[in-house]
Amino acid sequence: MYERRLAAAAANTADAGLAGLVITPGYDLRYLIGSRAETFERLAALVLPASGEPTLVVPRLELATFMESADALGLGVRTWVDGDDPYRLVSAALGGGPVATGVSDSMPALHLLPLAAALDVLPVLATDVLRELRMIKEEAEIDALRRAGSAIDRVHARVPELLVPGRTEADVAADIAEAIVAEGHSEVAFVIVGSGPHGADPHHRFSDRTLQAGDIVVVDIGGPSSPDTTPTVLGPTASANPNQLWRSTIRFCSGRSAPRLTPCDPVYPPPRSTRRRVVCWPRLVWPTISCTAPGTASGCACTKSPTSWPAMTWRWLRA
Q: Which domain of life is it from (predicted)?
C-alpha cells in the first residue's frame, strides 16, 4: 500500500512540475510511509524526488523512530548529527541547485526557512499534489472508513444516555472518551461537551459546569481514523418551542427547508441534495439531533481535505 502511494505521489509531483517533495512528520508522512514520528527542533523528513529513490533525512538521535518504516519500504536513510547541515542533505537528495520543491503544510517555519535558503528557492505547498491521492480511496481504505464510522456511530448512540441533568460536562466527557477507545479507536483525539452558554464556543472542551434540564449541549468528538462529527444535543426549554427549535436546527444542518418534524421523527438518510448528514436519535428525556459534516476528518488527521460547502454533493471517489 505505501509503495503504491509513494509511486503515485512521485508521479503527481512530476506532473506538477516539481523536482520533489519534502515531507516532515505529520499526517502526510503517516499517509505516505506509515510513520507516526513527531517533529522536533531537529529536521527529520522524507525526501521524495519526482524521479529517483525516496530518502529519509533524520537526526541520528532519532534514527530508531524511523527504522521500522525505512526497513519495511526499503527507503534510503541519511543521518546527521548536531553541527551538520541537514538542509544541505535534503538539497543534495533532490539533485542540488535551485529546484522547485513542494513541502507538507505541517512543516514548521523552523525548518521551512533554512530549507528555502538551502534550495535557493521558496518551496510551495505539496497540498495540491497529495490531495487527490488522499481523496481517491481504494477498497481497503473505504472498508476501513466504514469500520471507523461504525465505531464512532456506536459512541454517538450512547451519548443521549450520558446527558443527564445533574452530571457535569467533565463527567460526560470522561465517559465518552472511555467509549471511543472501547469501541475500537486507538486513542482519543478530543472530546468537547459544551452545555448551556458553553455551547456557543465550538472549541470549549469541557468543564465542571452541571448540566441543567433544557440545556442545549454541543458534543464534538474525534479519534484517529474516525470521522469528526459535531452533534448538537437539544432538550425542551421553557422559553422556546422545542419543535420549532428542532426545525430551525435541521434547516441549518441541511441547508434546506425542513418538513414538519417532532423531536423523534427520523430524518436519516437525508436527500442527496443536503449539505450535511442529519441524524435524529429518539430519546425519552432529551431528544438528539446529530449534524455531521462529511469529510471533515476521515483518515489520518482530525481535519483535512476534502471538506464540504453549500451545494456540494458528497460522493466517494474510488481508485
A: Bacteria
